[in-house]
Amino acid sequence: MHVADAPPHLRILRLLRDEGPVSRAELGDRLELTRPRLLAEVERLVAAGLIAEAGMAASRGGRRSTLVELHPRLRFAAIDLGASSIDIEVTNGRLEPVATYREVSDIRSGPRVILHRVNDLLAKARTDGAFDRLDAVGIGVPGPVSFRDGVPVSPPIMPGWDRYPVREFLAREHGCPAVVDNDVNIMAIGERHGGVAHSVDDFLFVKIGTGIGCGIHLSGTVYRGVDGCAGDIGHIQVDANGPVCSCGNTGCLEALFSGAALARDALAVARSGESPALAERLAGYQAAARRAAESEGLSADDEALEERVTITARDVADGAAEGDVTCIRLIREGGRRVGGVLATLVSFSNPSMIVIGGGLAQLGHVLLAEIRSVVYRRSLPLATGNLPVVLSELGSRAGVTGAAVLASDTAFEQAS
C-alpha cells in the first residue's frame, strides 16, 4: 500500500514510528486531516493502547498542543534467518532495539529445529525483561516466499521448509500477528527505512551472500511479483556451460559467484598454490585442525583434514588487501558476473540507486568497483547518468531492521 493511499490511522502510526513525538496540531497539518477527524483517530488509537500522550508541545503562538507518541509498551520481534545464522532484535515502537541475539545455525536443520530455537531466544528476551508481550513478529527467510500465504515455496537451500506454515506457527506461539518475507526483501525494506536508500523510492538492493537475490523497491514499496518470487536473480543463467546450481539448472549466477562458489574456487587456488596468500592460510588452518584433532584423540590424516578445513570470503578479502593477484582476480570475476546481470536490470527498470549488501559485501571496493564498471559500461548513458552503486549502510542489520518495519506495519494495519 502506497503511503499516500494509506488510511489515516496507519499514516499517523507510521509518522510517529519514523519521527517520534508529534503534536496533535502538527499531525493535522502534516497529514492534511480536519481537526475533528484527527481527534477522533487519535482518541481511538489511545484507547487501543497504540499511542499515548507525551507532554506539551512548544507554543505555536496560541494554546499549546499536546504531544503524542507511540505507546512505550509496544514491542516487535524482528528475525532474519540466514543460511548459517539467526539474527533477532526485539524493538520498541520506534524500532529501536531493546534486545539483540545472534548465533550460528544451519537452515538445513529444518523449520522445527530453527523456529523452536527462535522461540527459545525470544523466551530469553522476555525473561530478561525486553517485553511483556509482543505486538507483531516479522521474519525473513533465505528463499522464495508466498507473501500472501506466509510460507516458503520450494526454497533451494532450505530442505524441509517447502510450504511450512511459518506465519501461522509464529502467530500461534506468540499470540500476535506475524509476517513472512524473503530475506532480500526485508533487507531492501530495512535499507529504505534507515540506510543509504532512506530518501529513495526506486532502487535495487542486491544481496550477495550464500545466495544472490535482489529486492526491488518501486514507487516507495517492495515489488514482490504475482507469486512473491520477483528478484530471484541468483538463478539467472550467465554461463550455459557453468556448474550445476542448487536449483538444478546449470550456469546460474549464484553457482558461479556466491559465498559457496567463492569458497569453492578459493579452496581450489589455495590447494594448487596459484594464490600464495590463500595457500598460506590453508596451511595454517590445516595445522590448527591437526593439533585440535590430535588433542581430541581423533584422526589427523590429510584426507580427514581436507574435509574439515575450508577457505572463506574473509580470507579472499584479506588476501586481496595484501595484494594477492589471484584473490583480486576472483573478486573481479565475480563482480563482472554480477555487474552483467545488473546492467540488464538497469536497462529494464531504470532504478535511482543500486545498493550492494550481504556477506560478500565485505569484499569491499574491489568488488564494488568492478560491478560499477560493468553496469556503467553496459547500460545506456541515460539510465546511468545519475545512478549511484553503493554498499549497504546498515550491513548485517539491514535484515532485522526491515523485519521490524514489516512487523510494525502488520500490527498497525490490524488496528483498523
UniProtKB/TrEMBL annotation:
Keywords: Kinase, Transferase
Family the entry assigns: Belongs to the ROK (NagC/XylR) family.
Domain of life (superkingdom): Bacteria
Entry protein name: Sugar kinase
Keyword Transport included in the entry's annotation: no
HTH marR-type domain segment(s): 7-53
One example GO MF annotation: kinase activity
Organism: Paractinoplanes deccanensis
Gene3D superfamilies in alphabetical order: 3.30.420.40, Winged helix-like DNA-binding domain superfamily/Winged helix DNA-binding domain
